[in-house]
Amino acid sequence: MPELPDLAVFSENLQARLQGKTVHSVECQRAIRLNTSPEQLKSALCNASIASVRRAGKEMAFGFTNQATLFVHLMLKGKFHITSVPATVESQMLTLSLGGESLVVSDPEGQVSLKLNPSLSSVPDALEVEGTYLRRKISERRKKGVKAFLIDQSLLRGIGNAYVDEILWQARIAPKSVVGKIPDHVIEDLLISIKSVLTDAIDEIKKRKPETISEEVRDFLRVHNPKRSVSPTGHRIMTEQVASRITYFTEEQVLYV
Fold first, then answer.
1. pLDDT of residue 30
2. Structural domain count, the chain
3. What is the CATH classification number for the domain harbouring 109?
């Protein structure tokens, strides 16, 4: 599933390629998770031009010149394609014809979610979260596991399974730690790690796949990486099911319980 760094790069590249293009037709090829009818989606987007493409948490927000906004959540296996031959894309969910080329959203599992003009979320983005907010939420959920806490999109938007492991490793917090038991100075380390891990990942993805709009790049990850057996500091990488997800960690990380 694409996470914040992937989507940040996708959004920049999609905006560069799509901004100013006009939607000539809208097709929902399969039964799709949509908060309105396909007819209303077509009415809202046809003849409008794409004004902006931005990331919003783990979703992509397409803004149009008529003030409509379409949020796309790719879920686990969704992908964006820009093609002059949309029929060649398998598992199409949505196609926006832009005159000469099309933006296609595909998903072999059919789980892609679309929202037209949704209410804006009040939950902060992981790159913008402040210490006051994070500490308040921790005080409200003191018994929650730290991994489950950080990937809960109702508390903090953008972090998923891969990057939470990277963040916790950098902050030296064991994934089974209880948030209410983590010392305040370590919470400060966690805040720093959230932003540095995510911004560094964005830079790394741009270096490796500067034009990507769909491919997840994870080969540079330091612990959440099946190709690695030891961390950069020389400690064995272990895996375990935590918060219902395969979790990568090392013995360097302190368990707070």
1. 65
2. 2
3. 3.20.190.10
